[in-house]
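Job type: complex structure
Entries:
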Amino acid sequence: MNRKPPTSQKRLAGSRERQASKADQVYREIKHSILSGALSPGAAIDKIALCERLGVSRFPVTAAINRLAFERLVVIEPQHGSFVARIASRDVREWMLIRRALESEIAREAGRALPAEIMGEIERNLRYQQAAAAAGDVAGFYALDVDFHKLIVDGLGLKQAREILDGLRSHLERVRRILLSPPGRLPSAYSEHSRIAAAIGRGDAAGAAEAMRAHLDETTAIFERIAADHPETFIG
Amino acid sequence: MNRKPPTSQKRLAGSRERQASKADQVYREIKHSILSGALSPGAAIDKIALCERLGVSRFPVTAAINRLAFERLVVIEPQHGSFVARIASRDVREWMLIRRALESEIAREAGRALPAEIMGEIERNLRYQQAAAAAGDVAGFYALDVDFHKLIVDGLGLKQAREILDGLRSHLERVRRILLSPPGRLPSAYSEHSRIAAAIGRGDAAGAAEAMRAHLDETTAIFERIAADHPETFIG
DNA sequence: CTCTAGCGTCTGGCATGCTAGTGCGATAAT
DNA sequence: ATTATCGCACTAGCATGCCAGACGCTAGAG
């Protein structure tokens, strides 16, 4: 008997959340370890230890590592081992180039048509940013910073771009964790964010794109300086 | 005994081509079937038949399908089946938006600094395009079109962007195969390509970005019209 | 005739054992 | 002491068997 394609739209679409498989859990666990820095670049990943620690067989672990290899967070060397990917400063530059291209285009789109309620959320986020910057709350500001950028993308319903940007952020996050960014940047980052939001708010598409570009150019410069100051952390 | 991270740069880097694993072969096989249209959107993928036809066990097939699910070419419904992903016209629009953002930024970069020998290859490619357009050779022109865009990205050594764009092209290629694009577009596509190359050649970064943007806006319009003419092929 | 409840069959998810290939280290030869 | 060689221990890749869940069909109740 042949099974059918999903009849009409339906099924568990939205209604029931498909529970996370074991492979998903292992994936999240390893990914978190890598992003938090618990697993350093170049470190070997001991599958068997993971199996025992998480109480699963090698199958979910293998699947999870394959997924991580697909997004370039680990490299698999056949018949040798799996290792946490090293960071090449060349790649960091390219990630920022891609991010700049995407986010400035998205800001342009947002300047053309962004739902009003999203604009309200952005303004609220900005007020929190101001508070966090004033208090020198680096961790809080960073979380708000990430939310700010996500709000714009999600506000336009751009799912694919959101995924690409999340992937880029994963890699960049790893750099940021290892080498903390300077706290003195908070106020200027806040004002750059404000300029972006203002341009979007007044429907100035070109201005929004340009403001986002300038903002990410600044961010790129920070990464460049960090990389130059810590040459031992990078390859290439 | 703990294994070590890859000693210095090392190993089979470039020297020995790492042979394709069975999972890789299966991956390529299925992907080709999907992109060529042999497997229609929504079709069920029969793992066991694939196992027998390719003479492998279910493991490589499962790994391959997982990878394809990761790049959204198939959807896995747990305990039910694996299906070729359907195409949403909304996604097509977003793919083109991402492509426009990336490629126009890359064209800008190319206008700033593109190696001379790459520029030579591009000009050669353009001459072939002209010949193909004059002869009405649609298939040949399409191949040259793809190469034209790849030449610019690869000429700048942008590996990550190249991968993202290849992923996008996979999806868009599927649309193009199903619904052939109008042959009358060849000459105009050629002249748009020429404008892009000319701007890059004279080091006009802003002009190159703008020409690429205009070119992909045209392409987007084609896709939009195709989608409007064939509403039954798309969902959403 | 309609609707519901249960069963059967198919699927993907997972566990486990085996194979082939790799780098490292010890040992031997110079 | 230095270098070449061989073996060993470990890895990822693969095959296979089992399990639980989801869908479709059917039989029975209304």
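Summary: Residues 6-16 of chain A have pLDDT under 50 and may be disordered. Chain A has two domains: 22-84, 89-233.
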